[in-house]
């Protein structure tokens, strides 16, 4: 396997990507020819999704910004740790190793560390990839708490259009915790995997020449067939998040962008509007289309650390956050074969560690993370553009998980 060029040499500003009026042809990053998905172009495109795909706005509201206190520390960069594959690194070295675009650390609610690289700036939204799933799952859990969604109900109760698909005999609960038997591959190295047809349907990837498949998210979901049994094993598949997002919007009668705005963004005191990629008929990509700023991701994560309370509001019911933090069936999760997350589980589209720090996380491919450690009074929000997509069983987890644990141990003294 060829080793990709390092973070410094692929810095989009250093490469001159999308600079000039217009940019030189060899420096352009475009949606229509998929160069926006090619590394190192992703080091620019992940911070500029709105310029590549159609999006729906997520309004922050007209209220004041919640401003974090700062207590910046200069002792974190030198924190040593050993990667899962046996290499000695420091915290600072791990940032380049992971092609970090931005990272912010909150300790006891104060910013103790904040850095930006490449195309990212504090006010610029970055694609969150599958962190989007945790927003979708949280909204579903809130609606469940309110009695709007019944987790024991059939998917068909909310989505009769899914008759004849893999989901015809599935429950909402099974969708929420991803214990669905469905033929769908998330293998990014396989050009024929269903993930790519989903990306085309969701307007996140250019439509190939002579393409005859579904061109909307709903159209794609209606093609999915059953493979295996429901309710027996965790299997991470983005199509489940899209089904859940559809249920959430159907039950609430509200677009996901507006739900995030009304339920979260207008109450958190965020700095910037967020946005989400939508398909050709305006349906949002509930499994990976969200873009937001690093500080606003930190606000969201800090709210979760405080049991749903933040900025003077009980934004999410405390019972909902506690239910997520408790996690789900670890035996079901173990069947997924994710060696880097042994002992973890997956609850309402959140990853739960069951360790002594009570860690749970929202995670996305290429290095997106909101890592919440109540036992260390710690939140880490990170955006990245690593050339490898997957977190689990790959280079990202091998570096990130020991680095985060080392930081928590250092702060706990």
Notes on the protein architecture:
The protein has 413 residues and is an alpha+beta fold. The chain has a domain at 12-45. Helix content is 30%, strand content 15%. The strands form four sheets. It has a seven-stranded antiparallel sheet with strand order 5-4-15-14-13-12-11, with helices on both faces. It has a four-stranded antiparallel sheet with strand order 1-7-8-6. Helix 4 crosses helix 12. The mean pLDDT is 97.
Short description, anyone?
The protein has 14 helices and 15 strands.
Relative strand content: 15-25%
Helix content: 25-40%
Shape: globular
Average pLDDT, all residues:
97
Span between termini: 40 Å
Largest sheet: 7 strands, antiparallel
Per DSSP E runs of 2 or more residues, the count of β-strands stands at 15
Q: Which stretches are low in confidence, meaning pLDDT under 50 for 5 or more residues running?
A: none
Biggest sheet, spatial arrangement of strands: 5-4-15-14-13-12-11
Taken in chain order, the helices and strands follow as: HHEEEHEEEHHHHHHHEEHEEHHEEEEEH
Number of helices: 14
Q: What structural class do you assign from the helix and strand content?
A: alpha+beta
Structural Rg: 20 Å
List keywords for this structure.
413 residues, 30% helix, 15 strands, single chain, 4-stranded antiparallel β-sheet, 14 helices, alpha+beta
Set out the fold topology.
Elements: H1 12-15, H2 42-45, E1 55-58, E2 80-82, E3 88-90, H3 91-97, E4 100-107, E5 110-116, E6 126-127, H4 131-145, H5 155-158, H6 172-176, H7 194-201, H8 217-221, H9 238-252, H10 256-268, E7 274-277, E8 290-292, H11 294-305, E9 309-310, E10 313-314, H12 318-326, H13 330-334, E11 345-347, E12 350-352, E13 360-364, E14 368-373, E15 378-384, H14 395-412
Antiparallel strand pairs: 1-7, 2-3, 4-5, 4-15, 6-8, 7-8, 9-10, 11-12, 12-13, 13-14, 14-15
Helix pairs in contact: 4-9, 4-12
């Amino acid at each position: 396997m060829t080793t990709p060029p390092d973070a410094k040499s692929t810095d989009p500003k250093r490469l001159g990507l999308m600079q000039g009026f217009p940019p030189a042809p060899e420096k352009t990053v475009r949606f229509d020819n998929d160069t926006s998905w090619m590394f190192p172009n992703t080091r620019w495109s992940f911070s500029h999704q709105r310029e590549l795909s159609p999006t729906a706005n997520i309004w922050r509201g007209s209220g004041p910004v919640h401003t974090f206190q700062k207590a910046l520390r200069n002792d974190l960069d030198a924190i040593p740790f050993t990667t899962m594959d046996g290499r000695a690194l420091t915290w600072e070295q791990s940032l380049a190793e992971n092609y970090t675009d931005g990272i912010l650390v909150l300790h006891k609610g104060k910013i103790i560390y904040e850095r930006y690289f490449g195309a990212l700036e504090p006010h610029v939204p970055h694609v969150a990839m599958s962190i989007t799933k945790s927003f979708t799952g949280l909204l579903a859990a809130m609606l469940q708490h309110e009695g709007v969604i019944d987790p024991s109900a059939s998917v068909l109760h909310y989505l009769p259009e899914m008759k004849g698909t893999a989901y015809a005999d599935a429950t909402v609960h099974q969708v929420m915790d991803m214990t669905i038997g469905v033929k769908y591959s998330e293998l990014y190295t396989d050009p024929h995997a269903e993930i790519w047809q989903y990306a085309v349907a969701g307007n996140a990837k250019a439509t190939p020449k002579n393409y005859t498949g579904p061109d909307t998210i709903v159209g794609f979901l209606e093609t999915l067939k059953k493979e295996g049994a429901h309710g027996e094993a965790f299997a991470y598949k983005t199509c489940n998040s899209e089904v859940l997002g559809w249920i959430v919007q159907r039950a609430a009668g509200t677009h996901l962008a507006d739900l995030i705005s009304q339920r979260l963004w207008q109450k958190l005191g965020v700095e910037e509007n967020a946005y989400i990629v939508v398909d050709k008929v305006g349906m949002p990509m509930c499994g990976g289309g969200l873009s937001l700023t690093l500080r606003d991701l930190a606000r969201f994560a800090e709210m979760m650390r405080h049991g749903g309370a933040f900025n003077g509001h009980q934004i999410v019911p405390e019972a909902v956050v506690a239910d997520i933090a408790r996690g789900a069936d670890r035996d079901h999760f173990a069947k997924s074969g994710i060696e880097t997350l042994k002992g973890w589980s997956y609850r309402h589209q959140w990853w739960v560690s069951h360790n002594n720090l009570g860690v749970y996380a929202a995670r996305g491919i290429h290095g997106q993370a909101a890592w919440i450690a109540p036992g260390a009074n710690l939140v880490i929000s990170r955006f990245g553009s690593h050339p490898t997509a997957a977190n689990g069983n790959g280079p990202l987890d091998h570096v990130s998980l020991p680095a985060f644990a080392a930081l928590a141990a250092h702060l706990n003294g």
